[in-house]
Amino acid sequence: MRYGTNDVLHGVTFQARRGEVLALLGPNGAGKTTTIEILEGFRMRSAGRVEVLGTDPAHSDERWRARVGVVLQSWRDHGKWRVRELLGHLGSYYADYSTELIRRPWNPDELIAAVGLTEHTDKKINTLSGGQRRRLDVAIGIVGRPELLFLDEPTAGLDPQARREFHDLVLHLAEKQGTTIVLTTHDLHEAEKLADRILILNAGRIVADGTAQELAQQIAGKDEVRWTYGGQRFIHQPSASTPFVFDLFQRYGAAVANLEVRVSSLEDTYLSLVQQTESHPSRATGMNSSKENQEEAAR
């Protein structure tokens, strides 16, 4: 993707597999939202090939759009509508795209129950709290029972309780409804909790692709074990921390003191990759943990 002479995306290549939750991480300006908007069909790419649900989003029709759900970072329209009447109205647009396999739209009352807004069915939207409004945003995004749901910074501005409830809702959609979910976030804990697979985007390139555990092991390095024995402080990075600690106690027993095991984390991975890319931009490509992700453009 190019704006004028500025390339904001460079050969971004990945696949989102059916039924998975895929998180797209990266610092501000990395190109996350631009990538999502291209996949949604809201923005035209400058070059390359994109396929979403078997269709190029740049040339999609209403039937394709009925299969895709979008939850934007924020929007504040329709404040005077009541929850149920808005969902009923928006759902009516999907009726013509119902199939034998997927009945569209979602029944408003069932949908309201699914997102946890039953007690607020008849409330005006402008009276809802931030967490309740975010649940409504998701309800709007899935009213047509999408096969693929895009979430752009879904929990920005939510308090911890609302964020936890939102996470539960996303996991329910993926696990119980079989919805494929692609989300962008700055929250590393959120990505680790929700995502089956994580992409890290920096300087317009994908610099890593894998599960949180895979990325931590392959990029951030080994776990670190620290302990004190005989008044001396020791630090070691074993290939496997659990058997190492077990052996340590077998050998020295209660003489081992101040034991700490620091497990490699997604945060370590993220910071390491961002720092590497900023120091050596040319190394941004080639850090993907899965060779198959080089095969074809975003599917």
TrEMBL record:
<keyword id="KW-0813">Transport</keyword>
<feature type="region of interest" description="Disordered">
    <location>
        <begin position="277"/>
        <end position="299"/>
    </location>
</feature>
<dbReference type="GO" id="GO:0005524">
    <property type="term" value="F:ATP binding"/>
</dbReference>
<keyword id="KW-0046">Antibiotic resistance</keyword>
<dbReference type="InterPro" id="IPR050763">
    <property type="entry name" value="ABC_transporter_ATP-binding"/>
</dbReference>
<dbReference type="InterPro" id="IPR027417">
    <property type="entry name" value="P-loop_NTPase"/>
</dbReference>
<feature type="domain" description="ABC transporter">
    <location>
        <begin position="1"/>
        <end position="228"/>
    </location>
</feature>
<protein>
    <submittedName>
        <fullName>ABC transporter ATP-binding protein</fullName>
    </submittedName>
</protein>
<dbReference type="Pfam" id="PF00005">
    <property type="entry name" value="ABC_tran"/>
</dbReference>
<dbReference type="InterPro" id="IPR003593">
    <property type="entry name" value="AAA+_ATPase"/>
</dbReference>
<dbReference type="InterPro" id="IPR017871">
    <property type="entry name" value="ABC_transporter-like_CS"/>
</dbReference>
<dbReference type="InterPro" id="IPR003439">
    <property type="entry name" value="ABC_transporter-like_ATP-bd"/>
</dbReference>
<keyword id="KW-0547">Nucleotide-binding</keyword>
<keyword id="KW-0067">ATP-binding</keyword>
